[in-house]
Design a protein that fits this description.
This protein is of the alpha/beta class. Helix content is about 35%, strand content about 20%. The chain contains 15 helices and 19 strands. It has an eight-stranded mixed β-sheet, with helices on both faces. A four-stranded antiparallel β-sheet has the order 4-5-3-6, covered by helices on one side. The longest helix has 20 residues. The radius of gyration is 23 Å and the shape is globular. The termini are far apart. The N terminus and C terminus are likely disordered.
Length: about 425
């Protein structure tokens, strides 16, 4: 098949699929050539500040990189990767900022997140949208970060933990099971839908090789299912933001228009395309929808012990309670909780040597509850009618104690104060 070829600044020849070019030409018409010329430019790179860890003013005073403000997000900046490497700076590992493609930062601001909101990120890995949501919630409310692909869960967990997540749950399930558990529950939902990735062409030649029109239609089918399930999980007055990093009408306007036609209570508030020839970014589509119809909420404010035993099986409750991801069966979790109740004591080991997520990875495979918020420990104990015993034992001691079944919960990253050393 004949293909049009364009030479990037890096002197790499890329071949854009003929069907893709035909479709874009229909959409852009007179702007088509300008769009094609954008493939001669370098990809754009950006970082987004974590305002929970550092203020914008303090970060800018550090003057670490030659930064340029991204216009659609107050926390985002462009940087030139040929001049600096923010990913190698210790502040990146500390979670002070997150590296994210600039146009992707346009999505979360559309949610208009308020403190205390309950938010769902339906397609969360590797964590760009979720980390942004966390910084907007500012240690309030709740974020549920769902990722259907189990292989991508580790990256999601690491990024959320690095950002300082304390009010976040990670789930690993499909949209249908999620809908059954959370109908009518959330104030805000973001769907960064799986797509054909046409917005990745300039920075990833593999995305070009993988593209087919059949993939566009396959993604469209998945997107329609996800947005229908997502809408059911919104409460009345809630906001759903749908986004993709692709340009096809099939995956963007067609999905939204069909969805709005099917749902009388759904109001399209805003729809926006970011094109790489018009803005400094790789391109994005964003649609904002508000729900005006009622939805009976099926979610009760469950006790954490019940959440641990649900079929959804959260891989980890960041800042609350987490479960081992490899075994993690609801029956094993329920049995463990019953053992604690029968003993009348919740044994808590503490260590300041490792972060909670690091410890979680080390003990993966154990049928253990791994938590790191003392308030939640107290709430669990109160609910179960048991007392709490704390012991500071260091990392090696904790690992041995877990393996020997001498402790039930880990408060990693902290040591007990004088009050905690006594049985409560």
């Amino acid at each position: 098949m004949e293909r049009n070829k364009y030479d990037r600044e890096e002197k790499i020849l890329i071949s854009l699929p003929e069907r893709f070019l035909e479709d874009v030409k229909v959409i852009l018409q007179d702007e088509y050539e300008e769009f094609i010329d954008s493939y001669n430019e370098n990809k754009t790179t950006g970082l987004r500040l974590n305002t929970m860890k550092m203020s914008k003013e303090k970060f800018q005073k550090l003057n670490l990189f030659d930064l340029e403000q991204i216009p659609w997000t107050n926390e985002g900046f462009y940087y030139d990767e040929s001049v600096c490497k923010p990913g190698k700076n210790p502040l990146h590992e500390a979670g002070v900022y997150y590296l994210q493609e600039p146009s992707a930062m346009s999505v979360v601001p559309k949610l208009d997140i308020q403190k205390g909101d309950r938010v769902l990120d339906m397609c969360a890995a590797p964590g760009g949208k979720s980390t942004y949501i966390l910084s907007q919630l500012d240690d309030t409310g709740l974020l549920v970060s769902n990722e259907i692909n189990p292989i991508r869960i580790n990256a999601l967990g690491e990024n959320l933990e690095r950002f300082g997540a304390r009010n976040c749950i990670i789930t690993n399930t499909d949209s249908t099971r999620l809908r059954k558990a959370f109908t009518g529950y959330f104030d805000k939902i973001v769907i960064d839908a799986p797509c054909s990735g046409e917005g990745m062409f300039r920075k990833d030649p593999v995305a070009i090789q993988d593209w087919t029109y059949s993939k566009v239609l396959e993604c469209q089918s998945i997107q329609k299912e996800i947005i229908r399930d997502g809408y059911k999980m919104l409460k009345k007055g809630g906001i759903l933001v749908y986004s993709t990093c692709t340009f096809s009408r099939e995956e963007n306007e067609d999905v939204i228009e069909e969805f709005i036609a099917e749902n009388e209570g759904a109001v399209l508030i805003e729809k926006e395309r970011l094109w790489p020839h018009k803005i400094k970014g790789e391109g994005h589509f964003v649609a904002k929808i508000q729900k005006l119809d009622d939805e009976d909420c099926r979610v009760k404010e469950m006790k954490l012990k019940k959440l641990l035993a649900t079929g959804l099986a959260a891989i980890m409750v960041m800042g609350l309670v987490g479960c081992s991801s490899s075994s993690g069966s609801s029956s094993a979790q329920t049995d463990k909780l019953q053992q604690i109740k029968d003993a009348g004591v919740l044994k808590v080991g503490t260590s300041a040597e490792y972060s909670p997520y690091e410890f979680h990875k080390v003990v993966d495979g154990e049928d253990k509850i791994v938590g790191f918020d003392d308030f939640v420990v107290q709430e669990i104990a109160k609910d179960m009618g048991v007392k709490v015993e704390y012991e500071d034992m260091g990392f090696d001691g904790l690992l041995g104690a877990l393996q020997a079944d001498k402790v039930d919960i880990v408060l990693a990253g902290m040591t007990p104060d004088e009050k905690r050393k006594k049985s409560v």
